[in-house]
Every structure is written in structure tokens, then in C-alpha cells.
């Protein structure tokens, strides 16, 4: 068992809660209200910009060249994801330049950036790994049995893609390399998972 595997296993309750969240289930079935998804697209784009910045800070703090390169590769993956969100934004009529972060979004991004600026690389990876692993998990679960052709099929295809799994594994390998299984690492990882759960719930709670 690796550190990243242990952390993921410790938080299976939250992973399952995210999968069962009505917002995520609505994506899976294609029945999610369009206004809720449009809200999510804007909030997630704001989040991903902070996520990319956190990768860059982690790269600057990496003591070895291999880690530096891997963090930058992961940041490139986020930039590709943002391109997808720009396409969604055009399709769903969302102006990404005017997005105001909601409380759940700001709580998550503030936590990520504070951890990135104020912590060592091991703790930074513990804060960032849950997002990558969770989205790969959700994409794979929603794609089981085949992806129905509905308005959210592209979202499922994106996060079920082998590239997302590869990026998640790369980040987990950095967690295994830099982190130790301390109370701080465990609590940081779990807090990020709680932020993910709150993020989906906030999108679901938006009035249609």
C-alpha cells in the first residue's frame, strides 16, 4: 500500500458521497438542470485557475528537477481542462470573465493557495491529489456500462479518459514521493475531499 492509496481508502465515505450527490447523478443520467450545470462551469473554471497556480507554486518548491517537470506537466493538464470549460461556457452562455466565486468555491481556492504558499511540497500534494483522483473516479463510475448520448456525455467522456487517470496517477506518485502519513497530511487530504463535496452540493443547491 502506498501513501496515496491509504489516503484514498481513508476517504471512501466522501468519495461515495460525491458520487451519490444529486448533481453528479444528474450529470450521469443527463437530467441535471441546465442552469445548475452552467453555474458549475463558471465556478469550476475559477477553481481550476487557482489549481493551476498551486501546481506552479509546488513546482517552484520542488527540490528535484523530476518533480519540477511533473508539476508543470500537471499544470498543463489543467490548462487543457480550462479549454474544455471555455467551450462549455460558449455553449451554455456563461461569461467566465464575470464569474463571482461562491462561498464554497472561495473556501476551496483559499485553502489550496494558502497551502501552496505556506506548506512544503508533500502537504501541497495532499491538498491537490483528492481533486484529480476524485474526478477520475467519478468519470469511471459514471461511464460504467457505457456512456449514454445526452447533453453531459462529453463531461463523462473527459473524466473517464485515460489521460485523466494518468494525470491522477502522476500526482499520486508525487504524494508518495514527498508526503509522509502524518496527521497533518491526513487532515489536509480529507479537508480537500470535504471541499469537493461542498462544491458539488453548492451547484446542486442553486435555484433553477
Number of strands: 0
- Approximate helicity band: over 70%
Strand-residue proportion: under 5%
- CATH classification class: Mainly Alpha
Number of helical runs? 10
Which fold name corresponds to the CATH topology?
Heme Oxygenase, Chain A
Q: What is the H/E order?
A: HHHHHHHHHH
Uncertain regions: pLDDT < 50 for 5+ in a row?
A: none
CATH architecture: Up-down Bundle
The CATH superfamily appears as Heme oxygenase-like
- Overall shape: globular
End-to-end separation: 44 Å
- Domain module count: 1
State mean pLDDT (0 to 100 scale): 93
Alpha-beta classification: mainly alpha
Rg over CA atoms? 16 Å
Biggest sheet, open or closed, and with what strands and sense? none
Describe this protein's structure.
The protein has 208 residues and is an all-alpha fold. It has one domain (3-205): Heme Oxygenase, Chain A. It is built from ten helices and no strands. It has helices at 3-10, 12-20, 22-29, 34-61, 65-92, 103-118, 121-143, 153-160, 162-178, 183-205. The protein is globular, with a radius of gyration of 16 Å.
Summarize the structure.
The protein has 208 residues and is mainly alpha-helical. The protein contains ten helices and no strands.
Give a quick set of tags describing it:
Thiamine_Salvage_TenA, Heme Oxygenase, Chain A, 208 residues, Thiaminase-2/PQQC, globular, mainly alpha
What layout of secondary structure does this protein have?
Layout: H1 3-10, H2 12-20, H3 22-29, H4 34-61, H5 65-92, H6 103-118, H7 121-143, H8 153-160, H9 162-178, H10 183-205
Helix pairs in contact: 2-10, 4-5, 4-6, 4-7, 4-10, 5-9, 6-7, 6-10, 7-8, 7-9, 7-10
